Amino acid sequence: MAVTIPATPAPIDLDLDHTALLIIDMQRDFLLPGGFGESLGNDVTLLQKVIPPLVDLLAAARRVGLPVIHTREGHEPDLSDCPPAKLRRGTPSKRIGDTGTFGRILIRGEYGHDIIDELAPAAGEVVIDKPGKGAFYATGLAEVLQSRGITSLLVTGVTTEVCVHTTTREANDRGYECVVMSDCVGSYFPEFQRVGLEMVVAQGGIFGWTAHSADVIAALD
Ligand code: C5J
């Protein structure tokens, strides 16, 4: 089924048979008070604003049977997949693999690494564990999308200027139509949120489109 979504810089026609909802890194360590993100001095309420509209968008996607793909940023417990340059980044004691409030920071299997309860993956939904900021690097995402015939992505999650942007750019280069859901992506930095969204749609939509979740939900329902 094809639908037209009001979007920036122009409306976009989406073939829902070839569209997936991509939910990037809605992990406890980024979103919960006391987690890794907050320990770095960030205001997590700026990310938590994303949860209610994303819960609604996820419910709508599930209602119409859109494939849902979740990602989580993190590393093996032995850190063998974490480049030394990434490992050295940040304040000592608050680096990847160190012990935080919710377990070892960004380590697979730890409580903080997992997705927040509100957006917990349902049975059958794909969860991509990624060591990088982009969801294509060192993951099976390309194969998942190809095998399901996906050509368009509704991109959501955190953070706008880091993992959402990197993944959108990777997807755009691979030929996917990316619609970044403006109220379902979040940044700890209001300025980065604003500019991050503007960058997607600059120059006629250089990386894709932005759209509001209410408009997509209306089109899905
Ligand atoms: C960050 C992410 N910000 N998921 N990760 O380090 O955007």
Identify the strand order in the major beta sheet.
7-4-3-8-9-10
What fraction of the residues are assigned to beta strands by DSSP? 15-25%
Return the string of H and E elements: EEEHHHHEHEEEHEHEHEH
Count all strands and give the number: 10
Strand count, sense and barrel status of the largest sheet are: 6 strands, parallel
Shape label: globular
Helix content: 25-40%
As residue ranges, the low-confidence spans are: none
Q: How would you state the average pLDDT, rounded?
A: 97
Individual helix count? 9
Question: What are the distinct ligands in this entry?
Answer: dicarbonimidic diamide
Structural class by SSE content: alpha/beta
Alpha carbon gyration radius: 17 Å
- Tell me the distance between the termini: 12 Å
Present the secondary structure layout.
Blueprint: E1 2-5, E2 12-15, E3 19-24, H1 28-31, H2 36-39, H3 45-48, H4 51-64, E4 68-73, H5 84-87, E5 99-100, E6 103-104, E7 126-130, H6 141-147, E8 152-158, H7 160-173, E9 177-186, H8 190-205, E10 209-211, H9 213-220
Helix pairs in contact: 4-9, 7-8
The structure holds dicarbonimidic diamide (C5J).
